[in-house]
Amino acid sequence: MPGEGLDAFVTKFQKAAACDPFGTLLIVPTSHLARWVVRRLGEGSVAIVGDTITTLQGFARKVFDDYAVSETLISGTESRLILTRLLAAGRYPLLDGPGTVEELATLFSVLIMRKVNYPAALGDLASEKSAEIAHLLDTYLRFLDGHGLVDESTLVARAVRLLADAGGGFRTVYVYGLFEPMPLERDLLLALRDGAEEFHYSMPYAPNPAVFSDDGEWLHPDTVISGGAADDRPSRLAGLFAHREPVDCGEFIRIAERRDRLDEVRAIAQEIHDLFVAGVRPDEIAVAFPDPDTAAPYVEEVFPDFGIPYVASVGRPLSASPLVQTLLSALTVPARGYRREDVVALTTSPYLLNVGGCEIDILSRDARITAGAAAWDERFTALARTLEEERARPDTPEAARARLIAKIAAVEATRDRVREVIADLSALEGTRTIREHLAAYRLLLDTWQAPAIPTEGDPELLEDEARDLRGFTETLAALDRLAPLLPDERMPLAEFSSLLALLLTGTRTGRRRQANAVRVVGIRKIAHLAVPYLFIGGLIEGAMPRLTTRLPFTTDAETRRLPTRSKEEILREERYHFVAALLAGRRRLYLSYPTADGAAPLVRSGFVDAVQGTFSPAVWGSEDFSASKVASARRAGALLACGEVPAGMPPGLTVREAIHRLNIENYHRKGGYNSPYDSMLDGDPAIAAALAEQFGEGAVFSPTALETYADCPFRFYLERVLGLAPLPEPDPDLTAQERGALVHRIAYRFYAAWKGDGNGPVTEACYPDALRRILDGGREEADRFGFESPAWVADKEHLLGSPAAGRGLLERFLRHEAENAASRFVPQAFEVSFGLPVVPGEVDPVSIPDAVAIPLGDGILRLRGRVDRVDVMPDGRFMITDYKTGTSHHKLKDIVAGRALQLPLYLRAVETLTGMEGVGGTYYTLRRGEVRNQPVFWDSGLKDCFACFPGSQRNSVEDVQDLVRITLSRVQDYLAGIRSGCFPPRSDAGPCPAYCGYKTICRFDALRLLAAAEGVMPDGTD
Ligand code: SF4
């Protein structure tokens, strides 16, 4: 049985090796077990030659190293690189696609190790595709032969020949625990046996055909010694799957069903902690997973939290190391065309000195850089130019000028720095041989003195970085070794970069060494070992058993025809690995499985059912993770909340401070907004003074700022008080704001000139002339943008019209104007600005630089803004219009509720400026799918004037002035809130607006609002 007699076998080997250390060999199934034997023998006094205890593959490598004269052994990754090149160089149309090389490598390995005569073995199933596969395999093998190379699959065959030529090398051979060797492995074993004087072969076997079928007859043994037919626990475990009577294993086997993977690993960690408390040493415990890569992140998170020292048997791919990613990105940045995100990632890496900084990220967004070496320079230069133009404008305030000067300097410095980086990186570009690429790459890393690794810091992190750097250097050396194989083969940088990335992905980082630690291993590596306390987790279908029957590039029918493993054989092998793992547990065996992975349910392994049906195992696992630091903190909080002091507080944290922090979350951030933790800053005189200075009686407000406060005081606080702004999106096309500004400018230019020439409303009679003039102006304004993207071309067509797009937005605008000419309103003033610098030619002549003072109770609202348009009736009454290019606009009910302030405030501002009476406000929607001027409110006494506007039936009001008074009363409340420091998040439980850029730093909680509205107390009572 697996693991049975291993000690005695090793002792026999030890005795033989003591007499003949170089002529005695021990072969075991896994390198894990080989290391264990070496360690065990190392504890004794007998000297052992290290490489005489090995795996079959390790032995083949040893034979190769000892006897091969001129050949070179290449790694799996190197062989994949060669396959990649051969695939690219040949004509294999049926073998194209992602993942092809990996699948072909797997297929070739199976065909070689199982000595399959391909494609002849397919018989009448042979096809064009199998012919391509056979041709590629033949080309690959000839390439290896021609270059004196041996890969991991051909190594065994080569070792068989070398061993035969050498006449054998070992006098006494011990082989332990191999499970059903493949045909080529059998050849190697037979060659070993033929050359040895003594050949001892101990194989796992039990009278259970559901698991064991290899009886070793193929070795033609002289003597067969069977294990005892004992009725002990191991033999009962080995009888699993044989449909025997259920047996009682007492408390030896335990099973736990856990909620998900995290809960499962936590339960394992808690149980391990309890074992520690009971006196069990860490090195007496092992945790095995069928899929260790999936389990690794959970173990990495949970075990340190429970204070469990552990050592994982496999490292992570080198390509996952942040240090290696930085070094690799020096290649990927030019290979991918200097994409913004790639350049930012490279230049902000802590592993590079003096390469860049976070300003590159922010400024490149402003400059709207997305990719391209030349674009970096051009766009930064254009940004500096735009900023300079803004600085030079007469209406730019002095404070803004100083900011602009600093920003221009930052843009130019960043441009120069990026220019240098791109010049360095461009030296890597071009089509070259591997050797030339390597030389250029190494030169760049030398020039940059990369990577820069700190000499002080977390010792474990420093150790990881040093190990990753070693791995990276060795990987470059592996590429160096590959280079002579393809001396004249030239490849573009992108391909070289992919080659290196492939190598780095296929290379695992080394393991941390740690004595007396819990071992975390793959289930196949635990076989034959003796582990006092063994956990086997992650027992779900798909992971255990893993029934991957179909070979890559073969149909089910082809797989059945080829002499490879059938589905039944794979199931038997999986059962063997499971039984072998069970047999490794000596004092207690803990099995477990998660029932879900996130929202996806998981199906427990059928092997768990077999164990439950056969051994009636106990259950294990706790819901209380007392050993978890996170759980302890939670418990301590619960104790503190009840007025009790927990046993241990983290250093530097007092009970008072801890209670205070807990109260922030559990008391203050529950129910309505009423504490500083929800930005209710009304109790602090210093804050009140600062706010009075910024937002007191003399402060000028825009309707937008007040609407922001109305919608979300916290957003106002972030935006207007703290001056924070979300990072701009690097949008290469026209933004929504730019589209709006463009439409506003065209409408202003058209009407200012139209009216200046003495024209009245646009009517059918003057329509052709008006259309020509607005299109001319539109073309000129659009041409100011230097975009070239297809999106911009389409945008222009929709603005100006084209045979393909039909009538443009401007033409539809004019058509709508002509239809509304009957309203008696005449467009009179455009871009009426107040409280803003007046730039002649950009605003209406009635504009003033001072803010408009609007009486507000016993105070004053100083308002600034710009009214898009004022239309006047012959009697002097007017309506104001706001152009909208977006999708959603406020309605009358929003004005009544105080959410929409702009139209009433602008109406009152124009009244104050002109002394005329406002009778309505409209939103003029100007966008691709919709052009219409719709009144939001209008004086119900002017039905004949507003009837021609679309959708006007519902929005009349008895008294427009009353509506303005409602708005002013709301504004009074908002100003009081701002000045007193009330900045809570939104009080509307509905979703926050999509455009809010502060979601990542906001604690808005709709459920809290709903609970507060229903009167539910923080503790859930009502
Ligand atoms: S996410 Fe909501 S609550 Fe938070 S700032 Fe934005 S709008 Fe206000």
Question: What are the SSEs and their pairings?
Answer:
Elements: H1 6-19, E1 24-27, H2 31-42, E2 53-54, H3 56-67, E3 72-73, H4 76-89, H5 100-113, H6 128-146, E4 149-150, H7 154-166, E5 172-176, H8 183-195, E6 198-202, H9 233-238, E7 253-258, H10 261-277, E8 285-289, H11 292-305, E9 310-312, H12 322-335, H13 340-347, H14 358-366, H15 373-392, H16 398-426, E10 432-433, H17 434-448, H18 459-482, E11 490-491, H19 493-506, E12 518-522, E13 531-536, H20 556-561, H21 567-584, E14 585-594, E15 596-597, E16 600-601, H22 606-615, E17 618-619, H23 629-641, H24 655-668, H25 685-695, E18 700-701, H26 703-711, H27 713-721, H28 736-756, H29 767-783, H30 790-800, H31 809-819, E19 826-834, E20 852-856, E21 859-863, E22 865-872, E23 878-884, H32 892-897, H33 902-914, E24 918-927, E25 930-939, H34 943-946, E26 956-957, H35 960-980, H36 1006-1013
Parallel strand pairs: 1-2, 1-5, 3-4, 5-6, 7-14, 7-17, 8-12, 8-13, 9-12, 13-14, 18-21, 23-24, 25-26
Antiparallel strand pairs: 10-11, 15-16, 19-22, 20-21, 22-23, 24-25
The structure holds iron/sulfur cluster (SF4).
Question: What sort of overall outline do the alpha carbons produce when their principal axes are compared?
Answer: elongated
Portion of residues in beta strands equals: 5-15%
Q: If you average the pLDDT, what whole number results? A: 89
* Number of β-strand runs: 26
Count, helices = 36
Low-confidence stretches: 1017-1022
Oligomeric category: single chain
Give a quick precis of the structure.
This protein is an alpha/beta fold and 1022 residues long. The chain is 47% helix and 12% strand. The protein is built from 36 helices and 26 strands.
